[in-house]
């Protein structure tokens, strides 16, 4: 009966036409086959006869897993396809207990298929966005810009409703049954895993899941199967090397072989079959152990690079995945891949749509790559400086695109300038004039936006630290612009919720300018103090606060 699936049932019930739609003939046969097989296996004596069917069960599970994968990639979203998919998963759950615990090949194929089932992917649920929206200068001052300024979060979302029914839940419940079955076989202890009630399992309209396994059981299964082994299989699935084509095609009667159609490109493949992206992303975010091995990185990074070279929503998801991967590696593991990672990110930043969360996550990923390479050779320093220069140029040329400016400031510019300020010999000195021109221009044109002003001021402090040898020549301009920005914000935005935080950042930035720029900055303050009757009281008070803060910073710097 188990062999009968591949020989008789599958050829008539799991067929796709040339347009990827399910052919409905044979669905009733599949349903009856599941009933008969479930009845036969219900009282099956595993201890006496298990070894007789292990090979057959292995082949059947692999065939079932590939058929389910094929259905997740089809363009059909009818109830028929969901019924067939859930039925195949239930049959697979019946066959998995017959596998030998050492049959890792069949179970790996099954696990890869099951990774396609889950809630829709959203970058907000994959990583903590708020962890990357706080900018700071040393331990002196910090400013949280929040996430309200990021628009169009749909660009970071992948919908799974095309193959994973979110209403009835029959497909997701069947997938959980398979995860449970795999856990039992791998653990070789049925009492340690969640048992599935076979009577309730046949109820297709149940409103509760058979078990609420969450992520614990899948993670345990993947760990048992081996992260490297799973990475190899996930990559093969991502590029379509493991799926057997069962579409109906016309027989070739011509006596000479005709040239075959060119193979589909990876980008076109994942755009037409988003379930493959689901499998890859779910696997990557199941990785939690530090550090990741070189073997795992060799398999998952090519998939991430492909996503970064795709359409905007895939770019956003791919950048989030790369940020997660970077959090699990050290400079030693990344060294082999740093050049490719850097080039892919530069290309994606230059070509992707400059809106939504895509540009923000790409900027974060780029700064994280350079953060891991902080202690490497001078070549990396030059590359970091060039990346910073590109961001400054982009900001300067797009003064009206506030979301783009905010994304580049928070995600890329502040972290990169911070890294440059930590290097010896004033590594940001070549960027001093461009940086001042850009950042002071942003302060003048966007003074009503608290988030942009806060991030710009923090970036300016890092720039003054990294380019301090040339700052004394620009001290008057820097101090006058900082005081003017403060007064404009005090006039128009004093009732802003973030006014207190921003006022502290502005005062600290002006105090830093006084210490770094020296005499020319001092002249501006002296002018205000000397002719205090000619200036608003708020400006005079701010000058006093700047001097007080500068004294405090000097005391902190004393040994």
Structure description:
The chain is elongated and about 100 Å long. It has helices at 3-13, 27-42, 46-49, 54-72, 79-95, 104-114, 123-126, 170-187, 198-201, 216-225, 227-238, 266-272, 274-286, 294-308, 312-326, 331-334, 338-351, 358-372, 378-397, 402-422, 432-445, 450-466, 475-492, 499-517, 519-530, 537-557, and strands spanning 121-122, 134-137, 141-144, 157-158. It is built from 26 helices and 4 strands. It has a two-stranded antiparallel ribbon with strand order 1-4. A two-stranded antiparallel sheet has the order 2-3. 63% of the residues lie in helices and 2% in strands. A hairpin with a 3-residue loop joins strand 2 and strand 3 (141-144). With 559 residues, it is mostly helical.
Give me some keywords for this one.
two-stranded antiparallel ribbon; 4 strands; two-stranded antiparallel sheet; 559 residues; single chain; 26 helices; mainly alpha
């Amino acid at each position: 009966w188990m062999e009968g699936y591949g020989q008789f049932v599958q050829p008539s019930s799991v067929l796709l036409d040339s347009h990827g739609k399910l052919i409905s003939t044979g669905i009733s046969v599949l349903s009856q086959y599941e009933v008969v097989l479930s009845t036969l296996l219900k009282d099956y004596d595993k201890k006496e006869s298990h070894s007789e069917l292990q090979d057959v069960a292995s082949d059947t599970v692999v065939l079932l897993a590939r058929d389910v994968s094929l259905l997740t990639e089809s363009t059909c979203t009818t109830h028929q396809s969901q019924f067939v998919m859930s039925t195949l998963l239930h049959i697979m759950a019946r066959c998995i207990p017959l596998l030998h615990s050492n049959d890792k090949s069949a179970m790996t194929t099954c696990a890869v298929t099951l990774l396609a089932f889950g809630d829709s992917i959203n970058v907000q649920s994959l990583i903590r966005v708020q962890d990357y929206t706080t900018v700071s200068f040393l331990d002196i001052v910090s400013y949280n810009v929040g996430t309200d300024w990021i628009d169009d979060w749909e660009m970071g979302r992948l919908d799974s409703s095309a193959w994973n029914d979110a209403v009835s839940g029959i497909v997701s419940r069947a997938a959980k049954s398979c995860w449970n079955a795999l856990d039992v076989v791998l653990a070789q202890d049925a009492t340690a895993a969640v048992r599935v009630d076979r009577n309730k399992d046949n109820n297709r309209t149940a409103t509760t899941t058979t078990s609420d396994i969450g992520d614990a059981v899948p993670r345990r299964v993947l760990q048992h199967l081996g992260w490297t082994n799973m990475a190899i299989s996930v990559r093969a699935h991502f590029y379509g090397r493991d799926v057997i084509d069962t579409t109906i095609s016309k027989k070739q009667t011509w006596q000479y072989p005709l040239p075959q159609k060119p193979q589909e490109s990876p980008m076109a493949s994942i755009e037409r079959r988003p379930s493959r992206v689901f499998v890859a992303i779910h696997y990557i975010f199941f990785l939690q152990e530090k550090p990741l091995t070189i073997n795992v990185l060799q398999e998952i990074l090519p998939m991430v690079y492909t996503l970064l070279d795709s359409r905007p929503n895939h770019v956003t998801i791919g950048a989030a995945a790369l940020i997660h991967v970077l959090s699990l590696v050290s400079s030693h593991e990344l060294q082999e891949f740093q050049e490719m990672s850097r080039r892919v990110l530069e290309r994606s930043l230059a070509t992707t749509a400059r809106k939504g969360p895509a540009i923000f996550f790409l900027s974060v990923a780029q700064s994280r790559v350079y953060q891991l390479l902080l202690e490497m050779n001078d070549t990396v320093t030059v590359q970091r400086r060039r990346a910073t220069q590109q961001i400054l140029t982009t900001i300067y040329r797009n003064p009206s695109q506030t979301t783009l400016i905010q994304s580049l400031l928070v995600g890329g510019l502040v972290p990169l300038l911070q890294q440059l300020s930590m290097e010896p010999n004033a590594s940001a000195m070549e960027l001093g004039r461009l940086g001042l021109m850009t950042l002071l221009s942003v302060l003048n044109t966007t003074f009503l936006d608290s988030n942009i002003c806060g991030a710009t001021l923090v970036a300016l402090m890092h720039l003054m630290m990294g380019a301090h040898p040339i700052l004394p020549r620009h001290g008057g301009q820097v101090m006058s612009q900082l005081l003017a920005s403060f007064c404009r914000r005090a006039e128009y935005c004093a009732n802003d919720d973030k006014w207190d935080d921003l006022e502290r950042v502005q005062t600290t930035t002006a105090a830093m300018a006084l210490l770094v720029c020296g005499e020319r900055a001092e002249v501006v303050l002296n002018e205000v103090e000397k002719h205090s009757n000619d200036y608003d009281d708020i400006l005079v008070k701010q000058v006093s606060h700047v001097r007080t803060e500068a004294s405090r910073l000097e005391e902190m710097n004393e040994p």
